[in-house]
Write a structure and sequence with these properties.
Blueprint lengths: L2 E5 L2 E3 L4 E2 L2 E6 L2 E7 L7 E4 L4 E4 L1 E6 L1 E2 L2 E2 L6 H11 L4 E9 L3 H17 L6 E4 L21 H14 L2 E5 L6 H9 L3 E4 L6 H10 L3 E2 L15 H8 L4 E4 L8 H10 L6 E3 L13 E4 L2 E6 L6 E3 L5 E4 L3 H11 L4 H6 L3 H7 L15 E4 L5 E6 L2 E2 L1
Parallel strand pairs: 1-6, 2-7, 8-11, 11-12, 12-13, 13-14, 14-15, 15-16, 16-17
Antiparallel strand pairs: 1-4, 2-3, 4-5, 7-22, 9-10, 18-19, 19-20, 20-21, 22-23, 23-24
Helix pairs in contact: 1-2, 5-6
């Protein structure tokens, strides 16, 4: 048995911190967190203070390392994207295909099946479109949007069976309650997003099995005192998970703080980056569906915009969202870490990720006290 013993840092197990303890990893899995006296034989990894945590999990990653998934929905692209985010602590992610053709979706599904087998950080696939509402298109192409058909439901179910984890973002207007129920019962993770729906329409789909809401507040009907919209339904529904983009541009921190205080259901908000290709790249622009997206520097982090000023994904990485949460959202470090580890794992139903419990994958990240990443590990191996 190949065993590694991590010492020298505070250990965050997904629920709480352990001081002056050691993390024991055997054959790529967590064995135990133990006192530092009487340690077993194995390779000792000595860390210089800081925090050792489970690696971060990102359910929405459009690109990274200079590559957009839409440009080339292939295994190679997925590997480049995962590699682009790994220096920022993300050890599991869902490459995300935004609204595109049926051919692009089929290629992404085929690639994800192989990329998951490679076990290098790709943990599934997120299809964000084409079943979105043109009224809330954001940076997506409205002309490609359409309702869900029975053939789409069958294709999603087959894809989930082949890949393991499939997340689909669908507007409430574009999917029936019966279709949501069929998808959910087959294990597809349904998230409502890019939708101008009423709160009642959203709640019907939540009750049918839609599990989450994609980037809360962005590209959706807002909360009014007589018309709560998708935002109000998402915050009020106790079983519904909400991804949030914490970059200082997508949502005002006052709105995020309000949502964090108001959300029914414990631990139901989690971080996503919605990152584009420029994360992990030195470029300042890229092309999205034939349109130029440019980086504008300033604020907590730079933002990405189309020529008309529309936000086009984010330029944020996961460790930066954690810093943002601690600095601007009144989060404890423990809760900020949960929002990047334990909570997305629960949303995606990853039983062996997002925490350092016995039997969990030894996907790890070491952070300095200033919340910068020093090292990540995949299955116990430095990556």
């Amino acid at each position: 048995m190949e065993r590694k013993i991590f010492v020298g840092a505070r250990i965050f197990d997904g629920e709480r911190f352990h001081d002056d303890k050691a993390l024991i990893v055997a054959d790529g899995r967590v064995e135990a967190i133990v006192a530092r006296n009487g340690l077993p034989d194995g390779e000792t990894v000595t860390l210089e203070g800081g925090v050792l945590s489970a690696g971060f999990i990102d359910a929405q990653v459009n690109g990274g390392g200079g590559r957009m998934l839409n440009d080339e929905p292939s295994v190679a692209s997925m590997d480049i994207i995962a590699g682009g985010h790994r220096p920022y602590g993300t050890t599991s992610l869902l490459p995300t295909l935004i609204t595109d053709t049926s051919e692009a979706s089929a290629a992404a599904i085929k690639a994800a099946k192989e990329a998951v087998k490679a076990n290098r950080g790709v943990a599934g696939l997120h299809l964000e479109g084409p079943h979105l509402a043109p009224a809330r298109k954001g940076a997506h192409l409205a002309e490609l949007m359409r309702p869900v058909e029975d053939r789409d439901v069958k294709a999603f179910i087959r894809a989930r069976e082949a890949i393991g984890t499939l997340l689909v973002t669908i507007a409430a207007e574009q999917v029936t309650v019966a279709q949501v129920r069929e998808l959910a019962e087959a294990g597809v993770t349904v998230s409502i997003g890019h939708s101008d729906c009423s709160s009642e329409a959203a709640e019907e789909r939540f009750d049918a099995g839609a599990r989450g809401v994609t980037h809360l507040f962005n590209a959706m009907s807002q909360m009014g005192h007589r018309a709560p919209g998708l935002v109000g339904a998402a915050i009020d529904h106790p079983a519904t998970w909400c991804g949030i983009i914490a970059d200082g541009h997508h949502v005002d921190p006052k709105a995020l703080r309000t949502a964090l205080r108001a959300k029914r259901g414990e631990g139901k908000l989690f971080f996503v980056t919605d990152a584009m290709s420029l994360v992990g790249s030195r470029e300042d622009s890229f092309t999205l569906n034939g349109r130029t997206v440019r980086r504008e520097r300033g604020g907590f982090c730079s933002k990405l915009v189309l020529s008309d000023g529309t936000l086009a994904g984010s330029d944020v990485d996961m460790i930066s969202t954690i810093r943002y949460g601690v600095t601007y959202l009144d989060l404890t470090l423990a809760e900020a870490l949960r929002m990047a580890t334990l909570y997305p794992a629960r949303f995606l139903r990853f039983a062996d990720r997002g925490q350092l419990s016995p039997g969990a994958r030894a996907d790890l990240v070491h952070l300095t006290d200033a919340l910068t990443v020093t090292t990540t590990w995949l299955a116990g191996e430095a990556a």
